[in-house]
Structure prediction request, 645 residues.
Amino acid sequence: MKMPAINKIWLAIVLFYTVLFASLAFYDGQPSRNMLENLTRPLPEAVEAGNAWIAVYGFSAPQGMSPYAYGEKKMHGLRDIIEPGGSYKEQDKQVPDNRAREIVFKGEIISLNINKDRDILRYVREHGGEIRALERDNAILLRRYEELRNYPGYADPVDYGFSAPMPKFSSIRKTRILRLLLLAETAGRGRYAAALTGLRDDMNFWRFIAGNSRLIISKLTSISFLYQDIRIAAELGANLPLSNEERKIALDILRPFDRGETAMREVFRGEVRNMQKGMEKVYSLSRRTTERFFFKPNSSDNLFYKNWEDVVGDVELSPQQIAAKVGRAGNLREKIGFGFLYNPVGEILATIGKVDTSTYIVMGCDLEGYRRLALLKILVRTEKISSENIRKFVESHAADLGNPYNGEPMKWDPAGKTLYFNKLSGNGRVEIFL
Amino acid sequence: MEDNQVLKIAPYIALICRPAAVRDAALKRSVIYAMAVNAINGMLVMTALWIQMSYMFTVPLIVTIGFLFGPFFSFIVSSTCSRIQWFVGGRMGSPASYNDIYRIFAWSFLPLSVMALLNSLVLIQFYKPGLLLGSVTLLPFILIALLGVRNYCSNIIALHQFMRLRGAACLTLAFLLILSAFMCLLLVAFLLLGDSINELNNFFPLFMALG
Prediction:
């Protein structure tokens, strides 16, 4: 019996759409080599003896318990929730957390905002009583802060995905400012070497953290702390009559950054891996079968990685390359293309999750520029350069202490008595008060 | 030459406002022809909808979605609507065949789908059009939509050979059944999408009313 033409057409249509939908539902791309390499390369374990991150996480441990033991206990509790497939939302409720007994910083502490023209040496002279009281009330936190330097490693919990806890840096920040004020007080009493050595220890610790950070929160925190260290070092180096030995320590504090301390590539690589690990948990494909029709893990991972690929490539970007990249960062949102046909959820998530990295990639270079400004400040003061000659002096140091982005000399603002260079974004400047 | 062109275009213009022109175009041509028209309707409507999101999706993707999925949804909608119409009409004593109803459906909404695309292309030229501008832009579309529905209803009643009241009752019943079918499709979609089942709470009153 011959089939009518109309039925043949219907059959062809049904077959065509069956094949089309099946192909779209089951097709997934191949994982890209670079993405796989980043996702599978071995990273140090977070819960491992000697990891300073654990102590930072448990910094506010109740009295009688070490920060490391407290941080480790909290991490084990978290792991017990995550490993059986618990929701990351449950972590806040269930992680054993003796919050009520946690030690918090007592008292008010000043800000060490680098843009504020505040003379720290004069401040500690005038507020000695308050600083003593703060030292007395926060003796335990001060001791814990000193002990952080004893840890040989620092590893962020990158592979915990969205469940990665964030240490409360607030207590550490306040304790650290108190410690810097105590160092300034020590310098004010004439013990320059002791103050500078203490500052160098602090700077070295945060350089170490900055060099080993793999998540942006650690990196940015360490960079902001390094700004403050540099600011204090510049103030001590410029205002105190230092001996040659003491000057050497000051210059050692302000030595150039190295070992990835200002580099952002590792942080971005860590961030993208952290995000991918998070997505693996949120979109656990073993639990939801229908989702695999709309969310393709390989293609989505490739997309997430591609968003960051420019800044996580094989080579760390030079300040000049960063300058060029930030200039091009305007057109962030690329439109969704054919990938949407087989991976609609992944495409949309990758598009809305796109981060403007231009704000972050300049931070390391800004810090390096600030270090140069600090050195210039010390040189201007110690060589007693008059206000009229500062511009010429700064120009003579363009090669070694110039603008990190274009190599031009730093700028001098006689009215505001500041040395500065303009930020790449064009909004504001990085400056140091003379 | 110009006269020839006018003659060629005139029947298509008549499709907008003259039910008889729609009936002529539909019934004089084969079902395969109607299927092709349905596919075009789907492509145009699908592209018109997606083009509103051209800030997010590339134009080649929008066109591809229109070409691939427009006919698919159009086939489903036109077949479902026509079959329900045929079923209800048959129960009420209509002699109309399914193929005729299917052909009327396809041709009635051809001007509407063309207008949908044109209107969509005009709308994306404006960034957040206000109420007045939006209304003015949508006016031709609304007019053609009303005419399209009028043509369809009129032709269906004529095909069924019903009087007005009986024809209106048949169309209303068919519409309610189509709505129920649409709700059932939504139910299946929500069931497939797991957690979205919770969203069904919002549809229960409607289901009960339809029941």
Q: What stands out?
A: Residues 3 and 160 of chain B are 37 Å apart (CA to CA). Residues 59-91 of chain B form the longest helix (33 residues). Chain B has a mean pLDDT of 85.
